[in-house]
Amino acid sequence: MRKRLYSLFAFFSYSMGFSQEIKDSLVLTEDNSTPLVIRSFKEDLSNKYNGKEFNYELADGESQNLVLRTITWLSDGLHGLFGIEIPADIAKVLEVVIYLLMGLLAIYLLIKFLTGQQVSHIFNKKASSLDPLNLSEEHIDQIDLEALLANAINQKNYRSAIRYQYLIALKTLSSNDVIAWEYKKTNQDYEQEITSPSLKILFKEISYLYECVWYGEQEIDEAAYRAAQPKFDLINNPSSHG
């Protein structure tokens, strides 16, 4: 009896579900009366959407950093003046180059700040090998700089002559209590110790010449050396220290 009831119930459920599917199904008729219209574009889309406003590889507006804004400004300027646009890949290369230059500048400034010297002073070993004089082992007052200067001039070694002239100037300023000489001090340190404005300007001039010739390996001949000597003679004159 139970099996018959279950069979009737299953048949009834199947019949109801099948009839519901028939009710939920819609029959769509194919529309053959409406003609097909083929749309066409009047403009070349590749040219219409080729401007920089459609370039999504570069950030724009407030999302750009200073470097990207500079590149964008440069690109806009070139486009406005000459009709030239900087491609996205070139802009990325420029960005990397700018970051590298900024990194090198930061390293240079950091070394100069920590050591108080020009970077060439640290990496340039050639200058120190040209001269046996080691100021870290001797005090400047105990060195016969005049004899070393005369010997360098006789040998036409004017780079060393400029160095000795500069050291003689430091020795003179130290003897007259204008500066307090110390081996680890930099030229900027001595410049700050000089109180006379005219003497400070003169000291900056000979310091610049010394750094260019000795550390910068700038070539100097006898004529250039003779032209620079009056500046050293003037700074070694006590009357100019007032």
Question: TL;DR of this structure?
Answer:
The chain has 242 residues and is mostly helical. 62% of the residues lie in helices and 0% in strands.
Layout of strands and helices, then pairs:
Layout (H helix, E strand, L loop, with lengths): L1 H23 L20 H4 L17 H17 L5 H28 L3 H5 L2 H4 L15 H10 L3 H18 L11 H7 L3 H19 L6 H14 L7
What would you note in describing this structure?
The protein has eleven helices and no strands. With 242 residues, the chain is mostly helical. The chain is rod-shaped, with a radius of gyration of 42 Å.
Helix content: 55-70%
Identify the quaternary structure here.
single chain
Total number of strands: 0
Measured on Cα atoms, how large is the radius of gyration?
42 Å
Order of helices and strands: HHHHHHHHHHH
List its traits:
0% strand; single chain; rod-shaped; 242 residues; mainly alpha
